[in-house]
Amino acid sequence: MNQMVVILDFGGQYNQLIARRVRECGVYCEVMPYNVPMERITEKNPIGIIFTGGPNSIYLESSPKCDPAVFELGVPVLGICYGIQTMAYLLGGHVTSPDSREYGKTDTYYDTTCPLFRGVPAQAISWMSHTDYVDTIPAGFRVTAHTNTCPTAAMENAEKRLYGLQFHPEVLHTQHGSEMLHNFLYEVCGAKGDWTMGNYAETAIRSLREKIGGGKVLLALSGGVDSSVAAALLSRAVGSQLTCIFVNHGLMRKNEGDEVEAAFGGRELNFVRVNAEERFLKKLAGVSEPEHKRKIIGEEFIRVFEEEAKKIGTVDFLAQGTIYPDVIESGTGDAAVIKSHHNVGGLPDYVDFKEIVEPLRLLFKDEVRRLGLELGLPEYLVWRQPFPGPGLAIRVIGEITKEKLDTLRDADAIFREEIARAGLDRSVNQYFAVLTSMRSVGVMGDGRTYDYTLALRGVTTTDFMTADWARIPYDVLEHISNRIINEVRGINRIVYDITSKPPATIEWE
Length: 509
Ligand code: XMP
What we know:
GMP Synthetase, Chain A, domain 3, Rossmann fold, 23% strand, alpha/beta, binds xanthosine-5'-monophosphate
């Protein structure tokens, strides 16, 4: 059993970031809604509890408040931003709402005798984002940091091991913020640092073996990071009891099908590759509306998968690559919302199985990648950027043909190769080419051309809900443009997409 920290979510924007920081410190944690019943916390036997920030003012009737019994558990608590205000309010202190807010990088003065600030300089920058602040600390507390405008940038009750920070230690703008979290975990909570991917792999393999026993497992392998890592983990746990079905719908990027096969060919599992290009292209012929394309691909995928699954007969478990951000219960809203995520919509209804297994359910994306490397998957699979289920079908605008797909595949491969060569493949979070299906006039050699316009798209984003267009250097773009025009037939004009999301979306369709 890993030591664990409970993060109580009050609805702030950095909740998942706090959880990731804690795990980066080698400590397992889970995010729970602020109003979770105390028993659900105590049954986890946490070594510490962290309150996140939140958008509300504590004195509003409707603002989230947790059960004050949380301070009587004898477990250390760290309140961040709205969390420090909640702590002060519930323990008899006072929070004030001034007219002005304190926002951004702020000079902060620390009392370095406080264990949280051990090894931190007496003055450094912290990241503030608040209006309200604690102006009267509760009995038994002392102030351990302040700024020029905020008298209580931090407070502690060392005896009860209760700590509060008005600023955000989890964001990179706070200098020494990760040391502060590390100090809370190791100096105050007594963490041992037992959350490592090596450990996780071992434990997960053991518990998968226990759960699956001699049963058969079926997994839809897309070649994306999550399903690939799930396959690698399951194959280590149960070997040839696992069957992976990889449906190549003909809408993959260049060489992708072979790369996926190469990565799994040597492992102990049953790898079924279905080459269904013709089938998909036939269904898509003459279709140009994006949602219609998606629907056709989704339905055809299920049909192909179902046919293959039938050949295997009844399976005991259907495996899915669900990851932690998909299952976190949100702390705000009238009811706790649990997002459910199926890698392939509707599959469970069509396949005969007894139970679902989700071996990545506890992991963040960066942890999934680390686990993949731990399990020996190649870097190109582990660092693969997100790729939509409908594939290149939504990157050829309008009607799809095999020729257009091949043109796009060649251009996209050059774009990706050059982005990697320029060392931008980790900083630009998603990048791809789009065949616009619009033609324009050009001149090549001595002749007139009338060919397609290709659009390049590169975005930076953390959650893919909002995104900014990536500032790829002009000389890199120039080189990419020259190569594509010279090496790919049928394209005579290249544009770079400079819209953010919103108002645009990341994909063009
Ligand atoms: P948009 O275009 O909505 O994309 O800004 C956000 C993210 O979702 C991916 N995306 C999809 N993924 N099926 C998928 O599995 C889809 O139909 C789909 N459409 C968009 C997109 O690549 C980006 O990462």
